[in-house]
Every structure is written in structure tokens, then in C-alpha cells.
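Long-time lurker, first post. I've been practising inverse folding by hand and with some scripts of my own, and I keep getting stuck on stretches where the C-alpha cells seem ambiguous. Below is the full C-alpha cell string for one chain I'm working on. Before anyone asks, I'm not after the true native sequence, just a reasonable design that respects the backbone. If someone could post their per-position residues I'd love to compare against what I wrote down in my notebook.
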């Protein structure tokens, strides 16, 4: 959750006159901190659990994204990592066979280098698949938005079915005034 804060300032003016120091204070009524609540996820809002004026405590569920695309991406990433793990294992076996044949002078150096190249490629593809899985797991873990502090919801800018596109900048979903 990303937060942006706003607050007013208090100006204090000190005036010296007749050998006496006077302090005049111009008060702009002190306002509470108001935070824009955003989410790094792009997706469809499933449920908004709060409304304007509602008091929330730290840890309260504020909003939830639809999980169908997130779950699909997670399943695809898990399937891909399983396939790439198998490909890496097979490439390692093939490299072992190529090294053994090369040692017996049955295989050319070129063929040995090709086996090494295929193994490195399989290792790289496995690492890439692991990275995709980490991203999918992160999305799954962050599809629910919780309050990170107590306060009062002052505005709600999101609704069920809304598509939130945070590709270029994070959309404000709620405003919460901190207590």
C-alpha cells in the first residue's frame, strides 16, 4: 500500500516593540493527516469493505481484488516452473552423456559445446520461470488491501467491478484520515 500525506502549517510571528517581546500566532486550524490509499496491483476490484465516514482499525480489510486472473497466472507460473525443472534435469543428463562421450573421443568438441549451451539455456529458463512464480505469488499475497493504521475513511474512489490500472501511476482507491 502506498500512502501520500497532506497537512496544514502553523505560522508564528514574533514582534519586538517597546523593549517587550510579543508572540502572535496565526493558527490555521490543525488538520489531521489524510492519506491517499493506493495499491500496486492492476486488476478488477471484487469487493470494497468500507464506506466514507467509517472508522477503521489497523489490520481491517479495506478492499479485495478479483482473484481469478491472479490464480490463473499463479497456476501457469507453477506449471511452467515444473516444466522448466524437467527440461533442466534432462539437459543436465544430456550434458553428462556428452561429456562422457567426449572423454571417450566419440563426440566432437562442437557437440560437447552444444550440450553445454543447451544446459545453460535450460538453467536460464528455469530461473526465469522461478521469477515469474515469485511475481504471481506476490500478486496473490497482495490482492487484499488492509489498513496499516487506524483512522476514518473520508472518501472511497473504488467500486466492485472497477478495473484499476496501475501500470503507469497508482490510482487512489480511498482516503483515510489518521487518528
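-- Answer (accepted) --
I ran through it position by position. Result:
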Amino acid at each position: 500500500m502506498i500512502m501520500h500525506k497532506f497537512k496544514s502549517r502553523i505560522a508564528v510571528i514574533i514582534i519586538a516593540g517597546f523593549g517587550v517581546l510579543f508572540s502572535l500566532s496565526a493558527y490555521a486550524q490543525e488538520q489531521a493527516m489524510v492519506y491517499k490509499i493506493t495499491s500496486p496491483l492492476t486488476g478488477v476490484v471484487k469487493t470494497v469493505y468500507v464506506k466514507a465516514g467509517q472508522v477503521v482499525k489497523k489490520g481491517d480489510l479495506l478492499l479485495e481484488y478479483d482473484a481469478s486472473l491472479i490464480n490463473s497466472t499463479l497456476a501457469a507460473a507453477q506449471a511452467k516452473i515444473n516444466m522448466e525443472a524437467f527440461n533442466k534435469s534432462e539437459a543436465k543428463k544430456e550434458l553428462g552423456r556428452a561429456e562422457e562421450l567426449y572423454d571417450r573421443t566419440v563426440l566432437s568438441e562442437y557437440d560437447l559445446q552444444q550440450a553445454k549451451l543447451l544446459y545453460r539455456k535450460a538453467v536460464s529458463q528455469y530461473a526465469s520461470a522461478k521469477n515469474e512464480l515469485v511475481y504471481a505469488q506476490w500478486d496473490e499475497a497482495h490482492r487484499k488491501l488492509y489498513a496499516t493504521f487506524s483512522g476514518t475513511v473520508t472518501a472511497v474512489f473504488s467500486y466492485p467491478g472497477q478495473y484499476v490500472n496501475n501500470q503507469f501511476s497508482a490510482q487512489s482507491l480511498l482516503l483515510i484520515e489518521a487518528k
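A couple of notes from the structure itself: The CA atoms of residues 54 and 153 lie 5 Å apart. The radius of gyration is 29 Å. Happy to go over any region you disagree with.
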